[in-house]
Amino acid sequence: MNDPGFYIGIMSGTSSDAIDVALISTHPKIELIASHSTPISTELRQQIHQLADPQKGSIDQLGHLDHQLGNAFANAVLELLSITHISPKLIIAIGSHGQTIRHRPSPSPHPFTIQIGDPNIIAEKTGITTVADFRRRDIAAGGQGAPLVPAFHRAVFSTEKIDRAIVNIGGMANITWLPQSELESEVIGFDTGPGNVLLDAWIYQHLQQGFDRNGAWATEGKLNKPLLDLLLSDDFFHRPPPKSTGREMFNLSWLQHRLESLNQMVAVVDVQRTLLELTAITIANSINQLSPTHKEIFVCGGGVFNPLLMGRLEYLLAPNPVFSTAKLGIDPQWIEAMAFAWLAYRRMENKPGNICNVTGAKHPQILGALYFGS
Question: Which of 111, 174, 276, 353 is 20 to 30 A (C-alpha) from 86?
Answer without folding.
Answer: 353
